[in-house]
Backbone:
């Protein structure tokens, strides 16, 4: 199986927030756009309708919840993806996966369980939607990453 | 005989300290090893695998522990049957914990740490365990402790599949990645030659799995002993 080359998102791409490789974040991250993590994150990452990518330099000790999760770096934590989890060559994941699809390349290291759950049928788009990120009140250090470009070094 | 330090000075660059170190790049962090060039993967039928899936036929939602590392084929196959798969590359973990030589697998503290890192599951978690050839590379102390732990984490009446070489004279055995093609066919991809932990003949295996309800052997043409064990 060959490794599909991954293109690092362009810094100017507006729809992708980026945590650069010199950045460390401890806390909760909620984002309403795609997120590219190439630095250190400890806590949780949530991007329900978007894609979270952990780049080759990324070191994440956090649970990740997203529509799609792509791993090229190291993750210690559970991963939940409504659509797909994609574990690339040389990625390391220690944690449990819940997703409707999974792809894993040879050379990736995975330790944990895989629970395939078919995607739930989403309610009609005309219905009410919750757009504001919900933060747990007992954990004050939530970090919204909408303007994460500012943190990139 | 020269001490190891002196021998390492005279050893050529990239020459492994022992044949055991001529491992594949997949197999973790053991020191200086010769590049292993695997032969192309081959398929073979497996009576043991067929029996394993026969025993869990018509059941869904089972928890299956696959100890050969995560592969797309095994994930697809097991999840397509409606099961939850737990994945762990235990041979790679052996290198991380003890290095490639089974003689190092005697330290009780290291054995306990190995079990804690790799088989730390609540009692009665699994409905099936695919051990493949991993026990082949464990020394007596580690293999006994591993089987004991497996008996705890497996549910009663659940099944375990393990492979051993039937050639009792060999001291080194090819290690494989096992990919499930269908209920009775596997694809074997070579991972490298490793020292065998001990001789596993029928008598030893019956003794090893004495706490289990039954042990069934299948001897194949390739000098492979496939074993199905019922908890």
Residues:
């Amino acid at each position: 199986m060959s490794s599909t080359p991954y293109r690092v998102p362009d810094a100017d791409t507006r729809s992708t927030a980026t945590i650069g490789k010199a950045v460390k974040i401890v806390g909760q991250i909620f984002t309403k756009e795609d997120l590219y993590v190439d630095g250190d994150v400890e806590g949780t990452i949530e991007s329900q309708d978007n894609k979270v990518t952990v780049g080759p330099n990324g070191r994440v000790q956090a649970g990740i919840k997203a529509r799609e999760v792509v791993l090229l770096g190291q993750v210690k934590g559970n991963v939940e993806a409504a659509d797909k989890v994609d574990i690339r060559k040389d990625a390391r994941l220690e944690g449990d996966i819940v997703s409707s699809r999974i792809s894993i390349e040879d050379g990736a290291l995975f330790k944990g369980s895989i629970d395939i759950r078919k995607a739930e049928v989403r309610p009609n788009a005309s219905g009410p939607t919750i757009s504001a990120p919900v933060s747990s009140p007992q954990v004050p250090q939530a970090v919204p990453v909408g303007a994460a470009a500012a943190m990139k070094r | 005989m020269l001490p190891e330090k002196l021998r390492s000075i005279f050893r050529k660059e990239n020459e492994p300290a022992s044949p055991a170190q001529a491992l594949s790049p997949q197999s973790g962090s053991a020191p200086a090893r010769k590049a292993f060039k695997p032969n192309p993967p081959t398929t073979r039928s497996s009576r043991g695998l067929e029996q394993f899936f026969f025993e869990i036929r018509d059941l869904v939602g089972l928890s299956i522990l696959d100890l050969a590392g995560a592969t797309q084929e095994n994930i697809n196959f097991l999840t397509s049957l409606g099961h939850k798969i737990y994945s762990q590359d235990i041979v790679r973990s052996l290198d991380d914990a003890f290095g490639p030589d089974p003689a190092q697998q005697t330290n009780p503290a290291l054995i306990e740490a190995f079990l804690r890192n790799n088989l730390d599951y609540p009692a009665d978690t699994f409905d099936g365990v695919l051990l493949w050839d991993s026990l082949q590379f464990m020394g007596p102390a580690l293999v006994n402790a591993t089987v004991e732990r497996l008996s705890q984490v497996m549910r009663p009446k659940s099944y375990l599949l393990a492979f051993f070489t039937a050639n009792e004279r060999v001291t080194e055995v090819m290690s494989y990645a096992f990919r499930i093609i269908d209920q009775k066919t596997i694809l074997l991809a070579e991972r490298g030659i490793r020292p065998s932990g001990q001789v596993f003949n029928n008598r030893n295996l019956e003794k090893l799995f004495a706490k289990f309800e039954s042990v069934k052997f299948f001897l194949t043409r390739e000098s492979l002993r496939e074993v199905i064990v019922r908890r």
About this structure: Residues 124-144, 146-153 of chain A have pLDDT under 50 and may be disordered. Chain A touches chain B at residues 1, 87, 102-116 (CB under 8 Å). The CA atoms of residues 12 and 137 of chain A lie 33 Å apart.
